């Protein structure tokens, strides 16, 4: 951009957030060396469960406001459906992110951000990022830590750039991220969900019930953790809005994506104060090095 037009520079302000919720599948599979104890073959290492995707939600931040999308296991090919909708929403975001003057070039990919997604969410989505309609054009990281993936739609030319929001901040939880960079209030509060109450064998039966989860459903026996009375009462109040537990899952999943919006917006503006469009860079260090 010519020097005299720098005053027109603006950051990428419109983006998508996403988050997966998971359900454990019981496998009870042994690994490592084997021995026989009381006539039973045992291994020195045991994996009891693996996580499977249960639902996925996104919040779309556009010039006109906020929109949420959600899919879950009840729908066939629900992850592909989520990606299809992301590409569709990205058409408007690409237009929203353009400069008012069409002569100013702008060709930054549409940011799609998860939280801790480099280690978690990308594991579930990566296998669906190449198909007859779209394909991976850029990949940074390895399978255990996928920092950035760019995916281009073969028909529309739209490019989604999957990023981990943790690249731009110090390590912490999603709850801390919302508290540290959000604006406060209920919209920045993370909900609760009783992951240990369901598995791939019973999830539909459990989630189809209309009554709220019990306080004991939120206990984690392995980590010796339990929910506080205050937090459980907040959950009970929230649950009154919903017909069944599936509806509460949707609310919880969407909340995990919507609480990222204000923190990311604030990070965008913080970087822009130093003349940086943070989505041109892939980490907090990269942004800092340009100041």
TrEMBL record:
Highest rank taxon of the organism: Eukaryota
Protein name: Uncharacterized protein
